[in-house]
Amino acid sequence: MIGIRLRKKYLRGIKWNKLDKPNLVMLCGLPGSGKSVFAETLRSKYGYVVHSSDQIRKELFGDENSQEDNGAVFNLLHKRIKDDLNQGHCVVYDATNLNRRKRKNFLTKYLKGVRCAKYCYLIPTPYKKCLKNNKKRERRVPEEVVERMYKSFQVPVKADGFDEVFIDRTAIRHKSLWWLLFKLSFVKQHNPYHDFTVGKHCRKAYTEIFHVCCPQQLLSLAALMHDIGKKFCRQKLYNGEQTFCRFSMHPNVSAYMAFHYVPQWIYSKPYDHHILYMALLINEHDRLMYDKSSDAANKIIDEYGLEFYQELSWLREADVAAQKRSRSNGKLS
Predict the structure, then answer these.
(1) How does the average pLDDT of the chain come out, rounded?
(2) DSSP, residue by residue, 283-329
(3) Nearest of 205, 291, 209 to residue 254 by alpha carbon
(4) Is 47 left (phi over 0), alpha (psi -120 to 50) or beta?
(5) Whole-model pTM?
(6) Rounded to a whole number, what is the distance in angstroms from the first to the last CA of the chain?
């Protein structure tokens, strides 16, 4: 298990003690990312009450790995969190918390009327590091479960109901995006919607976004990285005539990977919302493909605002333009 050091520069803006109202700190991360280590730090240094889904499972079923009756587990967990907040205690919610709908329902509905500051602390430890840490633990989560969670990751943002979202920058491993794109240039998509390899498609989407609009840096970076998770999610299938590939859940993996491949200078700014915004664009970039109705557009605007919807539309336009060669002359469109 990695050690998460409690350092001031990584915990900007949160008053851990001397509060006028209690804090709720919801942790978000894969198994083995270091959530429980961080939770224990808040407990020992500042007296936070830690409520863990694993703790509840052990209490109810005698096994932290039990997946029996998850509804009962989280009903009890949420009740205890709410009770402690109402009593004025600061609380850490120690669970993976990867699903946006569940986060939002808990924060905006279950905690409605509860006086507290709501923070999310995202620990985006690299997937392979999480697997390595998981193997060192006495209680191991099955690797296929960790993989399923990785593919279901949804970026936490203030729109979920948080007062602020923070990234644990000690978990970031700065990696070369250009080396990754070079390796992805050999990953064929075997897909009727794409003429190019994954790497070439990403680079072309980056070029196309400048034809579509005059993008700010975060949008152009989102275009460049929107499909970098495809290799991990690739499934080769055979339909009786030819092999083709499916890339289910790749926007979620791409968004998670982006925290480590974004240029290092992006992290020089003393806040995290711009990085989360870029990751959210990646996370949602296929949403307009599956639902092009006005209702879908209005829903996105209601959730994230008109500016986000406009940039998501531009990203989708650049993505489509980067998929195929020109039908007329065989050249790039």
Answers:
(1) 87
(2) HTTTHHHH--SHHHHHHHHHHH-HHHHHHHHHHHHHHHHTTSB-TTT
(3) 205
(4) left
(5) 0.90
(6) 48
Q: Which of 52-56, 87-91, 145-149, 260-264 has the lowest average pLDDT? A: 52-56
Beta bridge partners of 237: 244
Instruction: Judge whether residue 291 has pLDDT over 90.
Output: no
Q: How does strand 49-52 pair with strand 91-94?
A: parallel
Closest CA to 218 of 265, 281, 264, 272: 281
Which residues make Cβ contacts (< 8 Å) with residue 278, sequence separation at least 6? 218, 219, 221, 222, 258, 262
If phi > 0 it is left, if psi is from -120 to 50 it is alpha, else beta; for residue 215 that is beta
Q: Give residue-wise pLDDT tens across range 115-149.
A: 999 999 999 999 999 999 999 988 888 999 999 99
* Whole-number Å distance between alpha carbons of 321 and 308: 20
Cβ atoms of residues 267 and 169 within 8 Å: yes
Per CATH, domain 177-321 is 1.20.1050: no
Closest Cα to residue 256, out of 94, 130, 103, 102? 130
Report the alpha-carbon distance of residue 236 to residue 41 in Å, rounded.
44
**Cβ contact 228:184 at 8 Å:** yes
Q: What percent of the chain has pLDDT over 90?
A: 67
| Angle of helix 53-61 versus helix 70-86 axis, rounded to 10 | 120
The β-bridge relationship of strands 235-238 and 243-246 is antiparallel
Domain boundaries, the chain: 8-171, 177-321
> Which CATH architecture does the domain made up of 8-171 adopt?
3-Layer(aba) Sandwich (3.40)
Residue 67's pLDDT is what? 63
Q: Is the pLDDT of residue 106 over 50?
A: yes
